[in-house]
Design goal:
The structure is a single chain. The chain is mainly α. Helices cover about 70% and strands about 0% of the residues. Helix 2 packs across helix 4.
């Protein structure tokens, strides 16, 4: 995802031009969903995503060019998802809800078959690199600092990951 385009959209949104939100959402929804689905189920993920974008728009004036705006959005999403996951642990799961109607709606997991396949087939460190470098746009140097590993190791893993992703892409969309 191009950070230049993302920064352009954020500048327009800061000026109150809400017609740019749809494009901003389209560019970022995959990363936000990826952040959220690790902590909550698909039904809760939709609510968390909505709350995330509302919160992001409310703090938009604080978003500046120094910090990656996608990383800022990602952190909001992750924190909201963690809040819901913590609340779910404190609730009584033995309550039976009779004849609950489940609405039919778009489920994001069907929209992202490659991501679902990656969750199943990649190692934890490979998935971390996928999430941070490819989806969120962090630099490999930043990912190396997060992992506490040398940049050369992360660069090698990244090259291996890209090769695996090409194969997984063919498998997911065959």
């Amino acid at each position: 995802m191009g950070n230049l385009r993302l920064n352009f959209l954020i500048k327009k949104l800061k000026l109150g031009k809400s017609q740019y939100f749809d494009e901003f959402y389209a560019l970022t929804k995959g990363a936000v969903y990826c952040a959220v689905i690790n902590y909550v189920n698909a039904h809760e993920a939709e609510d968390v995503m909505q709350e995330t974008y509302v919160k992001f728009l409310s703090v938009l004036p604080r978003v500046d060019g120094k910090r990656n705006p996608l990383a800022f959005l990602y952190e909001i999403a992750k924190n909201k998802a963690l809040d819901i996951a913590r609340k779910a642990k404190r609730t009584d799961k033995d309550v039976i809800v009779e004849e609950m109607q489940i609405g039919k709606h778009e489920v994001y997991s069907h929209d992202l078959p490659l991501l679902e396949l990656c969750k199943k087939k990649l190692t934890e460190s490979e998935y971390f690199l996928l999430e941070k470098v490819i989806i969120l746009g962090f630099k490999q140097k930043e990912a190396a600092a997060m992992l506490g590993e040398p940049i050369s190791t992360v660069n090698h893993r990244y090259k291996t990951l890209v090769k695996k992703l090409k194969l997984l892409y063919k498998e997911a969309y065959a």
